[in-house]
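Schema walk-through. Below, the input block comes first and the output block second. Nothing else is stored per chain. Lengths vary across the set, and this one has 273 residues.
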Amino acid sequence: MTKANSEETKAPACPFAAQWVEAAKLVFLANPGWKRIYDEAPSGAKRRLEISFWFTENLSGRKDCPDMLAAYREWREDVERAMTEEDIIYMFKTMDKPAAKEHYKSLLKGLRTHSHVGKSGVALMSYDDFFAMLDEQGEFQSPAYDDETKESIIAEFLPVLKGSGDPLETHVEDILATAELKEVRVYPKGELMYVRVMVRFLTETAEWSDLYQMLAAWDCIHDLKGYVFPVGKGHRSELPIELENPENKAQHEKRMQLMAIRVAATTKQKGVK
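--- output ---
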C-alpha cells in the first residue's frame, strides 16, 4: 500500500454529534446486507460508510440547511483523503451505483498519481520486469472460464486501453477483433488480472499481421499495469513492427469499420437480452 494502514491513521474529526452518527449506523446495520459490508470493511472504508449512513438519514433530499451540507462535504473530503488504496478499492467493489464506482475510481487514480504509482504513459515492459511485478503479487488463481466469459475478458481491453495514454490505445480495435484468450491469472493481493492472448495487428496496408503473443495485466479499476510481447525462447520481448509507426489513413479507416461492427453487435446483443 502507498499509505499507512488506516488503523494507524487518526480519523478526521466529525463535525456533528456522535450520537447522530451512531443512530444512523444502527439503522443501516439492522439490514444484514449493510452489516456484512460494514463488518468486512477496512477501517478507513468503515469511516466512509458511516458518512454515507449519516447523510442518508440526515441530509438526503434536503436543501434547507446549506451550512450542514458544507460541513458534511468537508468531513467527507477529509475522510477520503485519509483513505488507503485498500479502503478505496473496497468501496469501489462494494458500491453498486455507477456514479459511486466512478467516484472511487477517480479517488484511487488520484492517490496513485500523487504517490507516483500507476500509469507512466507507456506500460510496455521487459519480460523480466513484467514477471517481477507479477511475482510481487504472490499467489494467483487460474479459473477455467466458459467462452462467453472469455469474450468478456477480452472486451476489458477497451476500458483498460481507452484513455490510458498508452500508444497501444491506437490498436485497441485490432485486439478486440482478433484476440484469442489463452490464459488468465487472478492475483487477489492487488486485485490484478493477467491475461495471455494471441493477437494480430493491422499492417500498413490494413491487412492482418502474423500472430503475436501478448501478455498484459490490469487491476480492478482497469488501470493498465503493464504488457509485454514475448518472442522465441528465453526471456526476450520485442514490440511488433506494426506498432512502431503512426497510424495511416488505411489503418484508421479499417479500425473505424471494426469499431462500427463491434458497436452494432453489442447493441444487437443488448436488444436481444
